[in-house]
Design a protein that fits this description.
With 427 residues, the chain is mainly β. Helix content is 6%, strand content 48%. The chain has three helices and 35 strands. Strands 11-12-13-14-19-18 form a six-stranded mixed beta sheet, with no helix packed on it. Strand 7 and strand 8 form a beta hairpin. The longest helix has 13 residues. The two termini are 50 Å apart.
């Protein structure tokens, strides 16, 4: 029986281009069968680049048409877009991202509810009421007591350019603590206790200069704090006069006297718990809530300036200074891309099978972000690949509560299996 002629398959005219000069090929159109997939496109490029020399190490490319990754055959893409087979398509090719590698797993005594990296250090908050400070190589530097209830959020106040590194932690105990880690002495001091919320402090965001902090709470309020301006109630001995202070007598590693800060501003507007907060620029903050909204606040004018509504609760948001876009995690299992400036929802990323609990952008690539879910998976996404994640990162044995990509070469996830998982990322 005669084989089917390739001439019965529609052909498409295409030109290849790349921003990587070392992989560039002549700008000439190719006549490609519409049935070609990325595998065949890779073979074509490899043969042109290396003229059939099999001694070269294979290179895998990804292909983009109009800024979107090709994840099907060329013909299927054209039909899906209801485009024309007569068009000459310009296909961009880039090196395919290598899969992140599992690096290590760090054990805790209870749920790892929050995590933030900074240089060579990793800070975790835990449901056993403690903080843990690790090196990125997996050495535990210190377990820090102080809170009287589970820790829900952490953030760094400065980079690691000095011997003293400051960070903050928020807790179910309604307080936010400001800490100072003295690396040379391997000591930590509690500098401030920020009090004012009437319920759990669930999220914290620090502005670029580390001087102002925004918190969100289960009490539905957003509060602005300063650690450089005098806005204190006075010093209180750690022995204390209240039951809350007596519970903190176990804080043997902190100063016997802790200054209590009160908020500069309290902002109301959310109808349910505030789940996440990010600084967009020097004065504007975006918050997410269980009330199905994202809200933008102008902290210089202390007022709400924008509301974006959705159909489900938001659990986490992350802002990319590189693209000025926000990615959000939601109870409907979707991850969404938002342009706050235009109020436009620019994309929906669907792959998780459980609540998406946490998201975080790459700090060095405007297209990449990670998400963590109650389905126990952390996923690496590229905004140009809306139909599927680049990789599923497997390792957690229970729901993921927090993800972080603050250290460029490490992806972090903490979960209800009491583990902090570290994946190595090669650019």
């Amino acid at each position: 029986m005669a084989s089917k002629s390739i001439d019965t398959v529609p052909h498409v005219q295409a030109k290849f281009f790349t921003k990587h000069e070392k992989y560039s090929i002549p700008d000439a159109p190719y006549s490609l069968p519409s049935s070609v997939s990325t595998k065949e496109l890779n073979n074509i490029l490899y043969s042109v680049l290396f003229d059939g020399n099999t001694d070269n190490e294979p290179i895998e490319f990804d292909f983009l048409i109009d800024g979107e990754f090709l994840r099907s055959t060329l013909g299927d893409y054209i039909e899906e877009k209801t485009a024309s087979f007569e068009t000459v398509y310009e296909i961009e090719y880039i090196e395919r991202q290598a899969a992140p590698r599992p690096e290590t797993s760090l054990s805790h005594d209870d749920w790892v509810s929050c995590v933030r990296g900074n240089g060579n250090l990793i800070l975790c908050g835990c449901y056993d009421n403690t903080l843990r400070l690790w090196t990125k190589d997996g050495n535990c530097l210190m377990t820090i007591p102080g809170h009287s209830a589970p820790v829900k959020c952490v953030a760094w106040l400065n980079t690691l350019e000095t011997d003293e590194h400051m960070f903050v932690s928020g807790s179910h105990d309604q307080t936010l603590f400001v800490w100072c880690w003295k690396e040379s002495k391997k000591e930590v001091d509690c500098i401030y206790a920020c009090k004012g919320h009437a319920n759990s402090v669930d999220c914290v965001a620090v502005n670029n200069d580390g001087a102002r902090i925004v918190t969100g709470s289960w009490d539905k309020m957003v509060k602005l704090w300063s650690i450089t301006e005098t806005n204190i109630q006075g010093e209180e001995d750690n022995e204390g006069k209240t039951e809350e202070e007596r519970k903190r007598k176990k804080m043997k590693s902190v100063n016997p006297k802790v200054t209590t800060q009160v908020p500069l501003v309290t902002l109301s507007g959310h109808k349910e718990a505030v789940s996440s907060a990010v600084w967009i620029d020097g004065s504007n903050v975006c918050t997410s809530s269980w009330d199905h909204t994202l809200r933008v606040w102008d902290m210089s004018r202390t007022e709400q300036v924008q509301v974006l509504e959705s159909s489900k609760a938001f659990f986490s948001i992350s802002h990319s200074p590189l693209s000025n876009l926000i990615v959000s995690a939601s109870a409907d299992k979707h991850v969404r891309l938002h342009d706050i400036r235009t109020k436009e929802m620019k994309g929906t990323y669907t792959s998780h099978t459980g609540w998406v609990s946490s998201v975080d952008w790459s700090k060095s690539n405007e297209y990449l972000f990670i998400s963590g879910s109650h389905d126990m998976l952390m996923k690496l996404w590229d905004t140009r690949s809306p139909k599927a994640p680049l990789y599923n990162l497997i390792g957690q044995d229970d729901k993921i509560l927090a993800v972080d990509w603050s250290i460029p070469d490490l992806m972090l996830s903490g979960g209800a299996d009491n583990q902090l998982k570290i994946f190595n990322y090669n650019k």
